[in-house]
Write a structure and sequence with these properties.
This protein is α/β, with parallel strands linked by helices. The chain contains 19 helices and eight strands. The protein folds into four domains: about 1-80, 2-Layer Sandwich (GMP Synthetase, Chain A, domain 3), CATH 3.30.300; about 115-280, 3-Layer(aba) Sandwich (Rossmann fold), CATH 3.40.50; about 290-355, Helicase, Ruva Protein, domain 3 (Orthogonal Bundle); about 365-455, Orthogonal Bundle (Chromosomal Replication Initiator Protein Dnaa, Chain: A), CATH 1.10.1750.10. The relative contact order is 0.09. It binds adenosine-5'-diphosphate (ADP) and magnesium ion (MG).
Length: about 450
């Protein structure tokens, strides 16, 4: 449950922060404990700890709230991984900040794929767990061709397309495949944002030559999100020289971007023409069937088999972005897991439908009014001090709907019902959440209230 909750939180954060920030600060974190509102997040290093505390604490708390957890405090604890089975693989990942002087590192023992030299690659991205369909099949084929004979064809490979459609997954899969064929290969994966940052640091600390040497010694250089190099003249120049050196030596270069070279503003002409030397492939969002297959596969990895209707609902509901599709799936699974429910269509609809598809905006007052009306209770009573059962229950239901539909904080929910103490709200929401899993009448009542609200 912790794992799935944290996965859902990370999924949302991934949509909010840049790729580089996500990888650097969030990727290797895990939720260690979640008890009475005190959450402890395990982090790999003190740098990550500081950064999360200073810069991202609010974002983390907000995102937890959106996922139904009301933390009183979040602590960050340095945690050496390896004990947790779920995240075992990522412990092997090299920290993204490159030390240019770094040379071969010995493979660590527990990794499933042994890499003597890994840089920025995440083993979770493989060809095996990439679902091929219309929209990505050409890119997939080119990547496989490269993996089997790097540097010989499609050099450079330039993949472009919108966010969350699998570019990073594919280009990382190439790197991982090359490394598992040849553990000594120098595969370097970096986002262009990081490339820029490191280049600037190298100049500042007068380590230009280390920097250049490091990248020019790569057998395979994978640069993700090339668009971020736009306008960075000095870095482009450096990259141009790196590109030439590698290309001349028949080393493989793979680039991704959100747009084709011709549409990246202020991309130096000579780089643009280099990028056109090889192969450019436009990646599109996979079609409906492929999206269904993705949902099915991902839910199976969580050990859950979804009803076809749920799979189809998700694939229809999210049409633009596989990352969001995964996010929606994780949200559904986390919601059901926390409440001990089977992920069924009705739940998927109420959970995902409320936030995205439901056209109408409703406010807190309407929810309270609608609920009171449904149970023939006056506004005065529902907002007032009376403790009779036939008033208390509608009051609790109103709180529950405020939470599930508007994602209000507990103090806010309490206030909407004229209460000072927010623990009543927590208690009520939990109680209704629990009872609604057992009581079909209650579920029907809630969905009737909601239907009327959105009608
Ligand atoms: P991009 O780099 O294009 O923004 P990503 O490669 O980060 O997108 O993909 C977003 C998420 O969707 C990742 O978790 C990735 O594993 C998943 N994903 C995308 N396409 C597929 C696919 N065809 N099969 C399985 N997972 C996919
Ligand atoms: Mg990407």
């Amino acid at each position: 449950m912790k794992d799935i909750l944290w996965k859902s939180v990370l999924g949302e954060i991934e949509l909010t922060v840049s790729r580089a920030s996500f990888i650097t600060w969030f990727k290797n974190t895990e939720l260690l404990t979640n008890k009475d509102g005190l959450l402890v997040v395990g982090v790999p290093t003190v740098f990550v700890k500081n950064q999360l505390e200073r810069k991202f604490n609010d974002l983390i708390i907000d995102t937890l709230k959106k996922n139904g957890v009301e933390p009183t405090k979040v602590d960050y604890k340095i945690h050496t991984k390896g004990k947790s089975t779920l995240h075992k693989r990522s412990s092997e990942e090299t920290v993204m900040v490159v030390a240019p002087q770094q040379t071969d590192t010995k493979p660590k023992s527990s990794s499933s794929v042994r890499h003597s030299y890994r840089q920025g690659l995440n083993e979770k991205y493989t060809f095996d767990n990439f679902i091929v369909g219309s929209g990505n099949e050409l890119a997939y084929a080119a990547c496989q061709a490269i993996a089997s004979a790097p540097g010989t064809r499609y050099n450079p490979l330039f993949l472009y397309g919108g966010v969350g459609i699998g570019k990073t997954h594919l280009i990382q899969a190439v790197g991982n495949a090359i490394l598992s064929n040849d553990p000594k290969a120098h595969v370097v994966y970096i986002s262009s944002e990081q490339f820029v940052q490191e280049f600037l640091d190298a100049i500042r600390y007068k380590k230009n030559t280390d920097f250049a040497g490091f990248y020019r010694s790569a057998d395979v250089l994978i640069v993700d999100d090339m668009q971020f190099i736009a306008g960075k003249e000095k870095t482009q120049e450096e990259f141009f020289h790196t590109f030439n050196a590698l290309h001349q030596a028949n080393k493989q270069i793979i680039i991704s971007s959100d747009k084709p070279p011709k549409d990246i503003p202020t991309l130096e002409e000579r780089l643009r023409s280099r990028f056109n030397w090889g192969m450019s492939i436009d990646m599109q969002i996979p079609d409906f069937e492929t999206r269904c297959a993705i949902v099915q596969t991902k839910s199976t990895t969580h050990g859950i088999t979804l009803e076809p209707s749920v799979v189809e609902y998700l694939a229809t509901h999210v049409q633009t972005n596989i990352r969001e599709l995964e996010g929606a799936l994780n949200q559904l699974l986390a919601f059901c897991e926390m409440r001990g429910l089977q992920p069924e269509l009705q739940i998927a609809k109420s959970l995902l439908g409320s936030s995205k598809v439901r056209p109408k905006h409703i406010n807190a007052k309407q929810i309270v009014e609608r609920t009171a009306k449904h149970y023939h209770v006056s506004m005065e009573d529902i907002m007032g001090p009376k403790r009779d059962k036939d008033i208390v229950v509608p009051r609790q239901i109103a709180m529950y709907i405020l939470r599930s539909e508007l994602h209000l904080s507990f103090p806010k929910i309490a206030r909407e019902l004229g209460r000072k103490d927010h623990t009543t709200a927590i208690h009520s929401v939990e109680k209704i959440a629990k009872e609604s899993t057992l009581d079909a009448d209650l579920r029907t009542a809630i969905s009737e209230i909601k239907d009327r609200l959105y009608a």
